[in-house]
Amino acid sequence: MSRSRPDYSSFIEQLDLLNDDPSPMAILARSGGERVTDTFAVFPAPEVDEEGRYNLYFFSQYLRHLPSSAIAQIERLEVGETLEIDREVQNSYDDRALISNTEERYIVGYFPRYLLTEIFELLRHNVNLEVRVERVNKPSTPLQFRLLCKMSVGAIDNFRPFSSPQYQPLISEIAVKSA
Questions:
Q1: Which residue from 20, 34, 50, 73 has the fewest beta carbons nearer than 10 Å?
Q2: Number of neighbouring beta carbons within 10 Å of residue 15
C-alpha cells in the first residue's frame, strides 16, 4: 500500500506496526500480502527475544467461516489473553486444521496453513507453545485483519523454525545470482 493513500496509517495501525516505521517487506510479512489470485503467501520469520524464545505474529484465519457469535467473541478479547490450540477433527476440507479457542472454548479462528507443519512438530515434542492475543481491530476492519496473535515457543535442541522441506528455496541462490 502506498504511503500516500489516506488509509495507510489506519492499515499500519491494524497491523500493529505503528512504532516500527515499517519497511514494505515488514508490511508484506505481517499482512501476508495475499490476494484472491495469489498462489503463494508471504510470512515473517520468527523473531528471537532476549529469553531465547521464538515469536511469530499472525492473523487468525478463515473468520468468514465462523458464526457471527464467534466474531462477537473476538471483539471481547483482551490483549494478552491466552488462546488454546485444538484440532478441528470434523473439518472435511482440511484434516490438519487447527483452531484457536478462548479459555471458555469459543472458537476465534484458524491457524494459518503455513504454520501447521511447525505446530504439529512442536506439539509432537511436547514443547510449551503459547498463543496470545496481540491486537483486536475494530469491526470496520476487514475480517482477515481482525485478530492479530503472537505465538511463542522456547528454543529446543535441533529445532530450527521453517527448516522442513516445504520451506526450502525452489531455486538455489547460486542460480539466482548467475541469472
A1: 50
A2: 21
Name the strands in the sheet holding 129-136, side by side, starting at the edge strand that comes first in the sequence: 47-48, 53-59, 147-154, 129-136, 82-87, 98-101, 107-110
Q: pLDDT tens digits for 94-129?
A: 888 899 999 999 999 999 988 888 888 888 877 888
Extract the C-alpha cell encoding 174. 547460486
Given a contact cutoff of 8 angstroms between Cβ atoms, the answer to whether 102 and 77 are in contact is yes
b/e map 88-119, b = 16+ CB within 10 Å: eeeeeeeeebbbbbbeeebbbbbbbebbeebb
DSSP per-residue string spanning 91-137: -SS-TT-EEEE-TT--EEEE--GGGHHHHHHHHHTT--EEEEEEEE-
Q: Where are the alpha helices (DSSP H) in 15-93?
A: 24-31, 68-75
Q: 138 is written with which cell numbers?
A: 475494530
Show the DSSP H helices in the chain as ranges.
Answer: 8-14, 24-31, 68-75, 116-124, 173-178
